[in-house]
Each structure stands twice: as structure tokens, then as C-alpha cells.
From TrEMBL:
Species of provenance: Bifidobacterium amazonense
Boundaries of every Sialate O-acetylesterase domain copy: 89-194, 422-510
Name of the molecule in the record: Sialate O-acetylesterase domain-containing protein
Keywords: Hydrolase
Record's keyword annotation contains Disulfide bond: no
Length: 638
């Protein structure tokens, strides 16, 4: 059997400092594998006998931060040398798409973000996205380490990179990022079967997820989706008659604004075409440009003068499509494919063409009303309505059985193989895929933390997570309750939750501002992992007491004291003699307390609760002395 070494210990790897160094892999059963770690100052070796299953593991002495080394492994017949090994702090990144979201997603709109991505002491490893419902994997089958100074920085997790950069500013310690996040994944897929069974959270039909079942369902969906797409293309009069061509006569079409997402023509699956003739100022003619049309539900292909400039097959990525040289006058045609019950252009998104030097500006602040007035930015919405016509009516596209939503799979194949990895801590950003059933999420997250701490056997390492940001699309109530469940998960030790309701985008599930989230996570890490004495998070309520004619709320994580930056509005729900939801003002009465004065004779009642910041996009009105925002909450009144 050929000597194999885990991809986690490979060229350019970053290994956790101050802990024994595990090196593992596969070789011929019964043979002896020797690993040697060499630095400029010393060399040390450790041997391992290969077990009957072909697996071996050698443990070498701990090294200090900044140590550079090589590791040579031999089984007597084959020798392999791992070069450019560096020691520092390793952070595991996990969750779903907002943690997975890579720098390339925001690089177009903030082109200078990576100008200083030249730190060879920041390294990263993307765990291959595989799942397995049947067995725990002993190791990863693939993967490699990259150095941010030279290797594909656009592929790094944006939160991970901003987090590492902030830690590098505060500490002279190399940082390694191991990214195991998967877009769309539920929390249950990151948990062990045993834990979910003990909680009664494993589906009764979980046994159906055999390899044969998964392969069959994936094949059936691929075939059904391909047949659906062929049927739509064949029936599309727009394709057959080339509605994308600039000289096509659309004078008898209807008109609509891109912002009219509620139009009845978009409330059914099928294909809708939109066309617009655009003339730009002379100074923009011939310059490179980029179409920035936000997100679209569901799929699209956009043409400029009959030639495609970009295509996206699902709703979440921003439509940032390059134009090599902008013509003076041209026709944009959009083939919009609605695959579910509704579709169209995401409410609240702007539709811009960015030209020439403006491509070098940071335009990530989508809420800034002045963006469209900048030189080099064409506000397409200000140019008036588009011509549109529906070309195809279709049934709803067959649904994929999205296995990333199912329990255990990612835990078995993406987390268990990391168990020998030395860690400083974990960064977690997840919850969006669980928000439709928010109740009980706190118990799941606390169980996940316990699961992982047991698996890695490195004590109660810091677990730092992002609370859901501001967001207004869809049903907001589930979003609010999921946020509060995340707050409740702070009951487990050595955790911190960063608030983000001022850092999202009301119209985007994937907000661009990952820097704010990452730097708040770094502030939490400063306290939980590096011995800092600042607060790891914003004010968090610990109790609500009823006193005569008032309520009193006590907060933790206030630093030197609570600070109000706006009106402190609290809602009493189900109060006696009050409307079901009654709003009152609060006032700071002590370093860690707020009082809510009530009308004389008013009592909250036995089943009453108090809510604060209970909105999809609450105003930031309360913070601690470190400027960290208070969490939204709903709590019973004692």
C-alpha cells in the first residue's frame, strides 16, 4: 500500500502552536512509519506502527508560534517531505453560505480589498464538500493549503480573511483558516447521529439515506431538471425568434420597471423576456464596464446587442457581468427564467452599469443613495421602463432533494476527518436554513458545540458565532425567533455571539459587509482565546424583574456601562390591562440596568414577556462601552 499523508499536513500547512503535532495517514499494515520534524535549530522524530486497517499516526513535539519547519515521513520504502510548514493558531470556519462566501464575491464591488492580501502568515485550507450519511470518515481524500500572499486569495472565506487580518494586526501570530462551511446546510447536518438520536431530532426515515438512494435521487433530479430545461428552451419563442437581437421589433410589448417584482406576469413559472435600448454619454463609449443587477429569482441570461454577457442558474449570486467595451447605444435583453411559483428582480436592489475608473471604487455600500450619482455609474432604473413579454408558461421545476439539508452527512465527511487537527477555536455562521422552524435551535447549537468539543478532545475551545443580520424579505417572524434562539445558546460556556443587525442588507441573504462581522469575531477571540480584558460581545439580558410601576432589565457584557444612542423602546407582550403588544420607553438607571416605567397600577401579568429590538432591521440604539451592540431578545418577566 502506497504511503499516504493526510492533506491537512501538506506543503504550506499551518499547524497549531504549543500543542503536540499529529501527522497521520495510510501505509502498509504492520510496517513502521517515521515522521521527522526539522527546524533550523533542531530535529526530532516519532515512529508509528501501521494498524491492520492501514492507518498510522505519529505525534511530534509542540512548537512555538512562528516556527518554520519541514516534516519528512518514511515507511522504509517511500519518503515524502512536507515543506514550508508554519506554526501558529488554527481556526475552524463552519456553517453555511455566509461563512463560505469567498472574497471573489465582493472583489468586483470592492476591488482594493485584497491589495494587502500579501501576508504569508495567513494560510487557508478549504475542506472538500462531501457528505456521507452512513459512516464517519477517517480522513479527507483531498485538499491543499494556500498562502494568502500568492495563492488564489479570491477563494478565501471573506469572513475568515478579515478575521485573520485583524488578529494579525493585534498579535504577531500566524493564522490558519480551515473552512468547512457549505451553502444551504442546516445545523443538523453538522451533528453526529448519536447526538441527534439522543435528542429525538433524527428523522424516523433517516435509514433511507443509503448510497444507492442518494445516487438514484441525484440521477433522477439531474434527468428531470435537464428535461425541464430542454422543454423550456424548445418552447421559448424568444430563443427561436431571437428576441435578444438589437433590431428585433418589441414595439407591441408591455412595459415594466425592474423593481416591479409583484407584477402578475412574474407570479408563475416560465420565461419572461425584457429589453431596453440604452444610450450612454460619449465619455463612457469604448470603456470597460460591468453590469451590476443584484440578484434575480431564479435564473437569467443577459445579452448586449444579441451577444450573451453573463448567465446565472440560481437566485443568490449577484449578477455582475463584464462588458469589454461599452457601446454608445446598445440593447440589453434579459431572458428571465422563473422556476418556482414566483420570480423577478429582488426588491430593494439597484441596477447599475459601472464604467471605467469607477470599477476601481468601493461600491459595496448599496444603501448609499449617492452611488448612482458618481461619475462612471449609470443608474439603469432612472432610464425608465423596460419592454417585456412572457414567452413560455411552464409548471414548477422539479425540486432537488437537497442533501445538504439532511442530518449527519457533513459531520461524518467534513468534521470527523478534522478531529486530530489542533485548534484555537471555531467561527460559526449558520441559521438561515433553520429559520423556518426556529424553535429548539438553541438546544441544537449547544449540542453541536458539545459534540465538537468531545470529538476534538481539546477542552472547551472558544466557539464564536454570528447572530442573523438585518433582512426584510420573506416572513420576518421566523428570522426574529431564530435570532433569539441564537442568543439562548450563550448558556454554554466559552461562547460569544456577535450581533450583525447593522451589517446586513435588507434585500440580500448574502450581505457584502463581511469585514464588520469578522472584526467583531476577532474582538470576541481577543477575550476568549488571547486573554484580552475587553467585552467579547454586546449587552445581553440576564433577567427581567417586575417592580411596582416599572420593569427592570439587567444586562451582562456592558463593559464600563450601557450607552443609549437612540430611543430605548421595549414591547410588553400579553400584559394585563394592556394591548397585546404595548410599547414603552426605557431609561438607563445603572451601569448594567434599564428601567421601563409603566402607568400607575399597571402590572405585566403572569404570562407577559418583554421584547427589545424585535424587528427585521432594528435601529442600533444600545451598546456597551466598547461600542458593541446589544442583542435583540424576548424574555419572560419575573
Amino acid at each position: 500500500m502506497t504511503l499516504h499523508i493526510t492533506p491537512l499536513v501538506s506543503d504550506h500547512c499551518l499547524i497549531q502552536r504549543d500543542r503536540p503535532v499529529a501527522v497521520w495517514g495510510i501505509s502498509e499494515p504492520g510496517s513502521t512509519v517515521t515522521a521527522t520534524l526539522a527546524t533550523v535549530a533542531s530535529s526530532t522524530s516519532a515512529a508509528s506502527t501501521v494498524g491492520e486497517d492501514g492507518r498510522w499516526e505519529a505525534v511530534l513535539p509542540a512548537q512555538t508560534a512562528g516556527t518554520e519547519a519541514t516534516i519528512t515521513v518514511t515507511d522504509g520504502e517511500t519518503a515524502k517531505t512536507i515543506r514550508d510548514v508554519l506554526f501558529g493558531d488554527v481556526w475552524l470556519l463552519a456553517g453555511q453560505s455566509n461563512m463560505e462566501m469567498r472574497m471573489e464575491r465582493i472583489a468586483d464591488e470592492a476591488p482594493h480589498l485584497m491589495d494587502d492580501a500579501d501576508d504569508g502568515n495567513i494560510r487557508w485550507f478549504n475542506v472538500p464538500q462531501v457528505f456521507d450519511f452512513q459512516r464517519e470518515h477517517g480522513d479527507l481524500d483531498a485538499g491543499e493549503w494556500f498562502v494568502s500572499a500568492r495563492d488564489r486569495p479570491a477563494d478565501m472565506s471573506a469572513i475568515g480573511w478579515f478575521f485573520a487580518r485583524k488578529l494579525r494586526e493585534m498579535h504577531d501570530v500566524p493564522i490558519g483558516l480551515v473552512n468547512a462551511a457549505v451553502g444551504g446546510s442546516k445545523i443538523e447536518t453538522w451533528m453526529s447521529r448519536e447526538r441527534l438520536e439522543s435528542m429525538g431530532a433524527l428523522p424516523d426515515d433517516f435509514g433511507k439515506y443509503t448510497p444507492d438512494y442518494v445516487a438514484r435521487q441525484q440521477r433522477l433530479f439531474a434527468e428531470a431538471a435537464a428535461a425541464y430545461d430542454r422543454e423550456a428552451d424548445d418552447a421559448d419563442t424568444g430563443l427561436n425568434e431571437r428576441w435578444q437581437d438589437p433590431d428585433f421589433d418589441d414595439s407591441d410589448w408591455g412595459t415594466m420597471e425592474l423593481a416591479e417584482s409583484e407584477r402578475p406576469e412574474l407570479q408563475a413559472p416560465g420565461i419572461v423576456w425584457l429589453r431596453k435600448r440604452i444610450t450612454v454619454p460619449d465619455r463612457y463609449t469604448g470603456q470597460p464596464a460591468q453590469l451590476r443587477f443584484g440578484t434575480i429569482h431564479d435564473a437569467d441570461r443577459i445579452y448586449l446587442d444579441g451577444e450573451p454577457i453573463g448567465e446565472t442558474f440560481y437566485q443568490y449570486p449577484p449578477r455582475d457581468y463584464d462588458i469589454a467595451a461599452l457601446p454608445k447605444t446598445f440593447t440589453l435583453a434579459i431572458r428571465l427564467k422563473v422556476e418556482g411559483a414566483t420570480g423577478g428582480f429582488t426588491a430593494g436592489k439597484r441596477h447599475l452599469i459601472v464604467v471605467g475608473d469607477a470599477l476601481e471604487r468601493d461600491l459595496t455600500d448599496h444603501a448609499d443613495p449617492d452611488i448612482a450619482s458618481l461619475d462612471g455609474v449609470i443608474d439603469v432604473d432612472a432610464l425608465g421602463a423596460w419592454r417585456f413579454r412572457r414567452s413560455v408558461w411552464m409548471p414548477v421545476k422539479p425540486n432537488d432533494e437537497f442533501f445538504r439539508m439532511e442530518p449527519v452527512g457533513d459531520y461524518n465527511a467534513m468534521i470527523v476527518p478534522l478531529r486530530r487537527l489542533g485548534l484555537t477555536g471555531v467561527l460559526w455562521y449558520q441559521g438561515e436554513s433553520n429559520c423556518w422552524h426556529p424553535y429548539g435551535y438553541a438546544e441544537l447549537q449547544m449540542a453541536l458545540i458539545q459534540d465538537w468539543r468531545r470529538l476534538f478532545a481539546q477542552g472547551d475551545f472558544p466557539f464564536i458565532y454570528a447572530q442573523l443580520p438585518n433582512y426584510r424579505l420573506g416572513d420576518p417572524s421566523s428570522w426574529l425567533y431564530l435570532r433569539d434562539e441564537q442568543r439562548k445558546a450563550l448558556a454554554i460556556a466559552d461562547t460569544a455571539m456577535v450581533t450583525t443587525y447593522d451589517a446586513g442588507e435588507d434585500s440580500d441573504l448574502h450581505p457584502f459587509d463581511k469585514k464588520t462581522v469578522a472584526e467583531r469575531m476577532a474582538a470576541a477571540a481577543e477575550t476568549l482565546a488571547y486573554g484580552g480584558d475587553c467585552e467579547p460581545m454586546g449587552p445581553t439580558p440576564c433577567w427581567v424583574h417586575s417592580e411596582p410601576n416599572r420593569l427592570v432589565v439587567r444586562f451582562t457584557h456592558v463593559g464600563d456601562g450601557l450607552r443609549a444612542t437612540g430611543p430605548l423602546r421595549f414591547d410588553i407582550v400579553n400584559g394585563t390591562g394592556l394591548p397585546r403588544v404595548a410599547t414603552f420607553d426605557g431609561r438607563i438607571i445603572a451601569r448594567d440596568r434599564i428601567a421601563i416605567d409603566l402607568p400607575l397600577g399597571t402590572a405585566p401579568g403572569r404570562d407577559a414577556s418583554l421584547r427589545f429590538l424585535w424587528a427585521p432591521t432594528p435601529a442600533p440604539v444600545l451598546e456597551n462601552s466598547d461600542g458593541l451592540l446589544a442583542t435583540p431578545f424576548a424574555m419572560p418577566i419575573d
